[in-house]
Design goal:
single chain; 45% helix; alpha/beta; 13 helices; two-stranded parallel sheet; globular; four-stranded mixed β-sheet; binds phenylalanine; 6 strands; binds fe (iii) ion; 294 residues
């Protein structure tokens, strides 16, 4: 890869973020869009074994907690036995919703990320965590990205939401709305809850790939659970090093799509005049949805 000025900046930020530590991914082979070959042959038997353990632990937790479409799509993806070959799933995904999976070395710059989403390509990290990181990992790895994010892309409405989000990201870059938009991503794509006839369910990838939060977010009396309101959510700070203090709840994916479809330009303007809200805020008049008893 030819390192452009923009990419050099990106690597510098990444290094700073990881405390001057070295970058996790191998960025030496990627193209201008940060895409690499998955090189599936290079995964070791130990890594496939670790994948199986991660998968099995997590799959057991899904019934009664993950939303139905996630469980169904995941089953059809048939990825329990080994680290999946992206190409295989990508083909099935393309047939279902026109989305594709692209392999990336790890985190990519915002602009690149938004461009992929806007073109219905989902970037999936190629490397797998170390065994010591079984329960918790800071950066997204292939298990989080593939297991957590890919299943919902088989749902047509959610798939459209993700594309719309990518387009919105490109716009937010122009309008200075990145922080606001990132909060929406966090509280929906990563940590979203959804209602079902049987009670609250999880659709957020950050929860679905986590061993502990998947139970906590549904049953603990501690966090707030508030009906999603795009503008309110975009004001709300979030925690990156603990379970969430607030979860935002949607009725269905159509509601998510519809709420975020309007032009955000005036919203970003309004939000700039308002203070941000702490992660544990409950505003007057807001209803705190009761945890599910199980
Ligand atoms: N409608 C938003 C805009 O005009 C874009 C967006 C869509 C943002 C979906 C988030 C999710 O900027
Ligand atoms: Fe993620």
């Amino acid at each position: 890869m030819n390192t452009t000025v923009e990419q050099a900046d990106f690597f510098k930020t990444l290094e700073e973020k990881s405390d001057g530590g070295k970058l996790r991914g191998d960025y030496s082979q990627c193209d201008a869009r940060y895409v690499v070959k998955q090189n599936w042959e290079t995964y070791t038997p130990e890594q496939h074994e670790l994948w199986r353990r991660l998968y099995q632990r997590q799959a057991k937790l899904l019934p009664g907690r993950a939303c139905d479409v996630f469980i169904e799509s995941l089953r059809k993806m048939d990825a329990s036995a080994e680290i999946p070959r992206f190409e295989r799933t990508s083909e099935a995904l393309y047939k279902a919703t026109g989305w594709e999976i692209v392999a990336v070395p790890g985190l990519v710059p915002e602009l690149t990320f938004f461009e992929h989403l806007a073109n219905r390509r989902f970037p999936v990290t190629v490397w797998l965590r170390d065994p010591e990181e079984f329960d918790y990992i800071v950066e997204p790895d292939v298990f989080h990205d593939f297991f957590g994010h890919v299943p919902l892309l088989f749902n047509p409405v959610f798939a459209d939401y993700m594309q719309q989000y990518g387009q919105g990201g490109l716009k937010a870059l122009e309008l200075g709305g990145l922080d606001q938009l990132a909060r929406l991503y966090w509280y929906t794509v990563e940590f979203g809850l959804i209602r079902s006839e049987q009670g609250l369910r999880v659709y957020g990838a950050g929860i679905l790939s986590s061993g502990g939060e998947i139970e906590y977010c549904l049953t603990s009396p501690q966090p707030r659970r508030i009906a999603l309101q795009a503008e309110r959510t975009m004001r709300t700070l979030y925690k990156i090093d603990s379970y969430q203090e607030t979860y935002f709840v949607i009725d269905d994916f159509q509601q998510l799509f519809d709420q975020t479809a309007p032009d955000f330009t005036p919203i970003y303007e309004r939000l700039k005049q308002q203070p941000v809200l702490a992660a544990n805020t409950l505003l007057p008049g807001e209803i705190n949805i009761a945890p599910n008893s199980r």
